[in-house]
Amino acid sequence: MRILVLGFTGYLGGHVVEHLRALPGVRVFGGGRSSGAELDIDLATARTDGLAKTLASAAPDAVINCAGSTGGDAVTLAEVNSRGPAVLCAALREAAPSARLVHLGSAAEYGPGTPDTRVTEASATRPVTPYGATKLAGTLAVTASGLDGVVLRVGNPVGPGAPPTGLPGRIAGLLRAAGPDPDAVIRLGDLSAYRDFVDVRDVARAAVLAATSPGPLPHVLNIGGGRAVPVRELVRTLARTAGFLGRIEEDGGDGSARSGAVSWQCSDIAAAGDSLDWRPSYALEESLAGLWAATSVRPEGGRAP
């Protein structure tokens, strides 16, 4: 089986590739802008005809699109999160119309949740940020494409390799910088929101299952931890994991504008269990332990001081 992974060097894409390479009989192609990419593909700028030729050369049985942007202005977000999936679908219709497309969407597409209520795939989509809106546009491009496509609406991924642009990775970086100093103070914004955290390795496993499942799949599947966790709990658990001896203060600073408008987020993941026989396998504590262990290693392989 030939599987193309777009965004293969990113946080989610890297874990997807790792899972795929453990499967016998699977030929993995990496597509992206990096020098190590087998296929030079930039969905933000690609033209349909050129991308179709590139896809035809790879002749994939499945494509897993992990490319996306969580930061930047609305134009940047739209180029990557909205235009990217649209041009990919158009090119696939020309070059590989029978290939399965697995696209990683976001729970941010649902917008604000109702406390104590899990959102299903049939729930209304009411994104309140440019990020959520552009991810929803990408989802619509896939579901309306006529392709054998499935969108995985991912909750808040956490685990080894979490980037500093997201809350878990940012907190880990702050804790690493603070070290064992008992007088250290980390000041954060409001931590009262609830989020549905899911281990990045579980996300990767879901993507691989979706790409290799022989039968038809629903157009959209929620992939999350299935429970709402106070962000404050995540921060405190990570601090304990790190052996942090200082203080964490919530003073309204260093908050996330992208997530500030959503106080509750929790996904119903029953459909993924039914369709993919998938359920999360990592507890939050395991995910944070993996994240913390990974922050002690520099990218080049050396230990951090």
Automatic annotation (TrEMBL):
InterPro entries according to UniProt: Epimerase_deHydtase (IPR001509), NAD(P)-bd_dom_sf (IPR036291)
A Pfam family this chain is assigned to: Epimerase
Domain NAD-dependent epimerase/dehydratase: start-end pairs: 3-224
Origin: domain of life: Bacteria
PANTHER family in UniProt: DTDP-D-GLUCOSE 4,6-DEHYDRATASE-RELATED (PTHR43000)
Family the entry assigns: Belongs to the NAD(P)-dependent epimerase/dehydratase family.
UniProt-recorded name of the protein: Reductase
Native organism: Streptomyces olivochromogenes
